[in-house]
Structure formats: C-alpha cells, structure tokens
Design a protein that fits this description.
The complex is a heterodimer of chains A (147) and B (69). In chain A, 33% of the residues lie in helices and 25% in strands. With 147 residues, chain A is α+β, with helices and mostly antiparallel strands. In chain A, helix 1 crosses helix 3 and helix 2 packs across helix 3. In chain A, 37% of the residues are buried. With 69 residues, chain B is mostly helical. Classes of the chains: A alpha+beta (147), B mainly alpha (69).
Chain lengths: 147, 69
C-alpha cells in the first residue's frame, strides 16, 4: 500500500461515513484525478492489503471493516445513525471507530433469538452473552467473509 | 465471530465441531476498542502485525489460536 493507496483508503472511509454509501472507483477517480484503471488498481491494492474487502466478482466494496457496506445480520445504532457490521467483533468496533455509545442488534447464532447489547462508555451493558471465534487468527483472512 | 446466549447454545451450534476461542463480551468490547478506535483517524496508518499481536496479548488472548502470523 503506497501513499496514494493510503490517501484513497482514507477518502473511502470518510466518504462512507458521510454518506452511508460505498464509494465506487469512479468516486475515487474523480477525487484524485485518476484514470479509471488507476482507481481500479488502487481498489485491488487495498483489497490485497486487507484495508478493505471487495465483492468476490466485482470491483465493489463489501466491507470497510468494521462497517459492512451491504445489509447483514449485525445492525448497530451509533453516532445517531444506523449501520451494518460484519460480525460480533465488528459491531462493537463500529462504536469504537465512531467513538460513540451505541446499540448492537443481532441474534444468537444457535437459536436465532434476538439479542441486543447496549454500549456505554466503551463497555457492554448486557454482559451475559458469550463471544465465540471459530477460525484461528492466522486463517482469518483466508476467507474473511466466512470468518 | 458470533454471540451466543450461553455455552449450551454454543455447544449445540458446534454440533461436534472443535470449538474455537470463547471470551466474554467485556473482553470483546475491549478488543474492539483497542483494535479499531483509530480506524477513522485522518492520519490512519495500518497496524503492524506486532501491534495487533500486542493488543491480543494485553487482553490475555494468547496461545496458538490467537497467533496472527
């Protein structure tokens, strides 16, 4: 990831938080005066560097971790907005990234019953749930969508 | 990376698979803040593997399962 990649990465996150919409390569090209293929190459660099996650079959952003750019089973209310995240970890991380209290809503992975956790001053209010990580850390990025 | 209502629910979901790692939501929240609090900083730089490993270590998330590289 070179200096321009990093600037583009920071622009993508900033734009996403401003608009709630995943920026496209055209947006990055316009912002930085790039040709389309240069912006596309930057998206690929950022994906390969795990700075974002592209869709499997398109140059469209699926994840700006901890945010999910597509609807998911993890919903977070934080910073007076509604967000989607990618997993339990990312749900707490949305509050962390926004430096905000929040409310996480999803369901128990086993029984499907709704669960909700409020976050106040960086701490969970409902503390009885358990967090489980199935995939060992070294393999997280082998298939980040599954992880 | 999921939440469960109890260990009984986790065991049922695993259905005989080997479990991974289990922590409290208190630890999860601390982990999320240590890992992601700088994610929207205007001058954000990627964490090094060593920085992230130290975050895990400081929360007691140690052992082979939590080795990043």
């Amino acid at each position: 990831m070179d200096g321009l990649d990093l600037q583009i990465r920071n622009f993508l996150y900033r734009r996403f938080v401003e608009t709630g919409q995943a920026p496209r390569t055209d947006d990055a090209a316009a912002e930085f005066g790039l040709r389309g293929e240069e912006a596309e190459a930057a998206f690929r660099h950022l994906h390969d560097a795990h700075a974002l996650v592209l869709e499997r079959d398109a140059l469209e952003i699926r994840m700006l971790n901890p945010f999910s750019c597509v609807p998911s089973a993890w919903r977070v209310e934080a910073g007076e907005r509604q967000w989607y995240s990618n997993c339990a970890w990312d749900s707490f991380a949305v509050c962390a990234a926004l430096h905000s209290d929040g409310r996480i809503e999803s369901s128990c992975a086993d029984c499907g019953e709704p669960l909700a956790v409020d976050v106040r001053d960086q701490k969970p209010v409902q503390r009885d749930y358990l967090f489980h990580v199935l995939v060992p850390a070294r393999q997280w990025w082998d298939d980040i969508v599954f992880t | 990376m999921n939440l469960f209502r109890s260990e009984e629910h986790l065991e049922r979901w695993l259905a005989g698979r080997d479990p991974g790692a289990l922590t409290s939501v208190d630890t999860l929240s601390e982990l999320a803040h240590a890992w992601y609090a700088d994610r929207l900083d205007p001058d954000w730089r990627p964490h090094t593997l060593e920085q992230n490993q130290a975050i895990l270590h400081n929360l007691g998330l140690t052992g082979e399962f939590w080795q990043l590289g």
